[in-house]
Amino acid sequence: MSKKWVYLFDEVAQAEAYAGDWEGVRTLLGGKGSGLADMTRAGVPVPPGFTITTEACNEYRKSGNFPAGMWDQALAALAVTEQKTGKKFGSPANPLLVSCRSGAKFSMPGMMNTILNIGMNDTVVEGMINLTGNPRFVWDSYRRLVEMFGTTVFDLEDEIFEHPMAAYKAQKGYKVDTQMTAEDWQALVAEFKSLFKKHVGEDFPQDVYKQLELSTKAVFNSWMADKAVTYRKKEKISEDLGTAVNIVTMVFGNMGNDSATGVAFTRDPSTGDRKMMGEYLINAQGEDVVAGIRNTDPVEKMGETMPEVYKQFMEISGRLEKHYRDVQDVEFTVERGKLWMLQTRNAKRTGAAAVKIAVDMANDGLISREEAILRVSADQVDFLLHPQFDPNAKRDAAKSGKLFGKGVNASPGAAVGQIYFDANTAERMAKEQKQNVIMVRPFTKPDDVHGMIASQGVLTSEGGASSHAAVVARQFGIPCVVGASAIKINLENRTMQSAGVVAHEGDWISVDGATGEVFLGRIPTQQPNLEEQKDLLTLLTWADEVCARPEIRVLPTGEKSRGLQVWANADYPKDARRARSYGAVGIGLCRTEHMFFEPERLPTVQKMILAETSEERTAALDILLPSQRSDFDGLFDAMNGHPVIIRLIDPPLHEFMPDEEKLLEEVITMKVKGETEGLAAKEKLLSAIKGMHESNPMMGLRGVRLSIAMPEIVEMQVRAIFEAAADCTLRGVVVHPEVMIPLTGTVNELKWIQPRLERIASAVMGEKKVNFSYKFGTMIEIPRAAVTAAEIATLAEFFSFGTNDLTQMTFGYSRDDAERNFLVIYVEQKILPVNPFQTLDREGVGKLMSMAVNDGRKTRPNLEVGICGEHGGDPSSIEFCHMIGNNYVSCSPFRVPIARLAAAHAALKHAGTSVAEDK
Ligand code: PEP
Ligand code: MG
Question: Going by DSSP bridges, is the β-strand pair 457-460/437-441 parallel, antiparallel, or unpaired?
């Protein structure tokens, strides 16, 4: 027998046997197909049908033809479906109608095609009218088929059908579709068929099998549609998965007032609250609800209109949530009083909802704490920490009449931007003009997704919490307000209006996705307070507990160890305090030079640089010492009991000097004007700066090289560090200073500088009569340092990977030039998979790191290893640091919560597995 390409919904056991496990079934049958099969198995009322596999799609995409045997298997499955329903495809006497639905492994809402009512033709229509006695419904269904077939299978523009329909309604004086009579729909069917012929060049197919075949091909083809490709790129879904096709018996929500259709979430997908949230429409088809075109009723209202069905619906939804152990997004239809479940899938949710749901479900024992951690992505936590509106500024804006409208709070977050009324303009303004954009539409469709992604926020005047705009915005974490019905949008004039106030394209608005409010103008935002986010704090505590398990990690040496710690990069005490409050347990990098840039210190720093004798330099440094000491004192105080790594001065000295070109200009102007006062000093300064010129300063006199050329600066810094540490110790603060020497390339540099500095450390401790533990170590930023790590570790007690420089030097790219000139092209052309300055290049830079850790620990088994480059806050890079045996990652204080979660993800993902040497 040929390969099995088609599975009936009740053949899930066979699919499992073929695919190996449930993950395999989902790959084979897609999310929707496996869901329908699984629901069928669980005894949920699902309309009979079958799934054509993703493997068939991939074969079709290669050859342009169905694979051998597939179509025969589909026809056989259709015959079984006929038996199950007691209906016959194409038979006027008792016709079976089916839908043809896409369904990839990962849901891609609205991105691919679906065709409904397949199986209708001129004779079936007559039979259906006899059967149902409802000609209005039958003609309406037929016109939907002709329209969908035209737009989906033959790619006709929506307008080809929408304009004549609008014109027809206008001519009859109708406002809504429900005013259309059977005769009206019949007349439109005739018009749609002739439009079909005009644009397609052939008649609408009367052969129902032809309809099914073409629809199946159209769904396969829609996998490669532009919008689907864009979506997959954004969501990092593999191109190779393909979509399955589900052929499902049609059930009708539009067969009268005992029929209905709706969508619901088993918990609120915006907040995570435990309450069923959904909407439905009596006497309507599913697309009417999802498109957000008609105003829906909340699903609870079904309790009054259809109490029995509602009870059954609530019972089944609850069962589905327990079965899948996750919040479900369900689609249902009631056909003449009988409930059918059409789809269930894990609901898309906001970051806030993801956290709350995960914590609630773990507390209820439905999932484990580990699962709860894995269910929340680093991006979702990132979004939770995004700025919110300053409540006082918002109150003031409301008082001064800036509140423009209010709608449904579909996706939380504060968005401030300029309004644009279509997706293309929104995307263009965001990308080309670098504007912050808010996309405003009456409602959105899948074609609008590129504009939404480019926007800071989305506002629609129609639709509810499950409209397209709401679902997509939630998924991408874009703040969104929908259904702000008091706002009248005029797409032609490019304006929107509310209570007589008009906003034009390009005007600024502020959208609060958490409350549904829309304001004119720009409202300032502020950082959210982590203390108030109790569920997130709980989840992060669980994440820390996972990382702290003593045997969670198998190191490349085979030894067991705890997972990563998360430290932070902080230059000032206020950053250190924030880092602590976000859960950092150390400072991995304090860039001391930032302290030199303070306006009141800079002149002394410049004097120190320009000094012609060592005495002059020491005198300037003596002035700087007390301020450095108090900087460090504040850091130790904020980090009481935790390690603080202070990096000695790193940048080339010219960075502290005035700009050469500007100074030259000043000198010339003075000369031209004949001004003499101060001219000589300026000329002297200019010549000093010229003398410091280097052709490639980032590879010139900086880092440890500068310390060797001019040791007085670092000697002062080390004295300041140890005096501050001693003072703190005397006050009862527990200090663990770690002095970090930057840009080492050879152990001889350390041999030259480190003993001098250590002598100062001991001297200060002697003077102050205190003792505390401290370390001297180095950054690994130069490939040579990584390669000679074994020697470097003879002196260095810790390594910290400066992956910004290490990436620059390993690739030989200057970061700024590369990002400006060619990295985008490299990533687009797949020469590089990602920007290596954002995500660690495991094969190259990573290999050096792994080698450095292993070799360093051969010399010094308890060598402390961390990372302090930008990569320390990137989840994939954090995972790599876990794998090579780093002790900690250090990142910006704002990314600490994300890093804590990512560290736990890495620990759980690799729990118990050994990581080979030299990744
Ligand atoms: C690095 O190079 O990764 C680093 C942290 O140092 P800086 O960015 O200050 O050069
Ligand atoms: Mg560096």
Answer: parallel
Among 259, 219, 249, which Cα is nearest to 102's? 219
Please choose from 594, 596, 646, 779 the residue to mutate so as to test ligand 1's pocket, defined by most ligand atoms within 8 A of CB.
779
Number of H helices, E strands in the chain: 38, 35
- Whole-number Å distance between alpha carbons of 384 and 388: 9
Q: How far apart are CA 874 and CA 897, in angstroms?
A: 12
Q: How confident is the model over 369-416, as pLDDT tens digits? A: 999 999 999 988 988 887 789 878 988 999 899 999 998 888 888 999
Lowest-pLDDT range of 467-481, 680-694, 722-736, 896-910: 467-481
pLDDT digits (tens, 9 = 90+) for 794-825: 999 999 999 999 999 999 998 888 887 888 88
For the chain, the helix, strand and coil percentages under 3-state DSSP, each to the nearest 5? 50, 15, 30
120-130 pLDDT, tens digit per residue, is 999 999 999 98
Residue whose CA lies nearest to ligand 1 atom number 9: 591
The answer for residues whose C-beta is within 8 angstroms of residue 4's C-beta and 6 or more apart is 14, 18, 53, 73
Q: Which residues, at least 6 apart from 818, have a Cβ–Cβ distance to it below 8 Å?
A: 811, 837
Residue 917 has pLDDT above 50, yes or no: no
Determine contact, residues 406/518, Cβ cutoff 8 Å: yes
Predicted pLDDT at 914: 58
Catalytic residue among 57, 100, 468, 654: 468
**pLDDT for position 97:** 96
Distance, in Å, from the CA atom of 54 to the CA atom of 891, rounded to the nearest integer, reads: 41
Q: Considering the entire predicted model, what is its pTM?
A: 0.78
Q: What span, in angstroms and rounded, lies between the C-alpha atoms of 770 and 784?
A: 37
Ligand 1 atom 8, closest CA: 804
Residues with CB under 6 A from ligand 1: 589, 591, 650, 781, 802-805, 868-869
Q: Dig out the tokens for 807 from the structure.
A: 């990436």
Lowest mean pLDDT among 104-108, 192-196, 422-426, 477-481: 104-108
**Quick count: other Cβ atoms within 10 Å of Cβ 556?**
18
d(CA 8, CA 860): 62
881: annotated active-site residue: no
List all residues 6 or more positions away from 506 whose beta carbon is below 8 Å from its beta carbon: 418, 419, 420
Structural Rg of the chain based on CA atoms: 33
